[in-house]
Amino acid sequence: MRERDLDLDQMELPRWYDDNTLTMLVINPTAVFLYWELSLGRAKTLPGRLLVLNLYELPPDAGYESEKNQPVQRVALPPLTNDWYFYDLKPAHRYRAEMGWEEDGRFYSLIKSNIVALPPVSPSPVAPQIRRQTETVLPAQKTAVNNRIDAGKPLQATAREVIDSMSFYMGINQENRPERK
Length: 181
Description:
CATH superfamily of the largest domain: Immunoglobulins
Number of strands: 8
Order of helices and strands: HEEHEEEEEEHH
Radius of gyration: 32 Å
Helix content: 10-25%
Strand content: 25-35%
Shape: elongated
Distance between the termini: 43 Å
């Protein structure tokens, strides 16, 4: 092994990326998980402020998001927290989280999460009808197939015919094809 390969194997991922992110992940039909990171610059603007995490239920229309949504859950975050779970949510609904602080009865937003759509609790009650397409064999074709089987041809010869016909349809030249044994 080269020395450079050893260095890459011993490298560790950083614990901190100095980025402002708030990411929400679906856990199950009634729960989400959030994790976040605030950059050093953003964190310096927050001394003495208690961070608040609001969870909003969004309208079902994927293209519409109102600024007047009321939080369905709100939590004052303990110091040094960087993740949170929200439980008892409505299945098959859309959610977004927002982190910020409250001052004089007003909420000041720091960062918003991605929007997630929770799955339904169970599969749809109306399952799509799956149609199985069956091959229609005419009586004349049945006779031809039966005659081939009854003719006593070895199965290997029949398989060779199938491979040869496939080669023709795939554009493989019979003369240039290596023989298989």
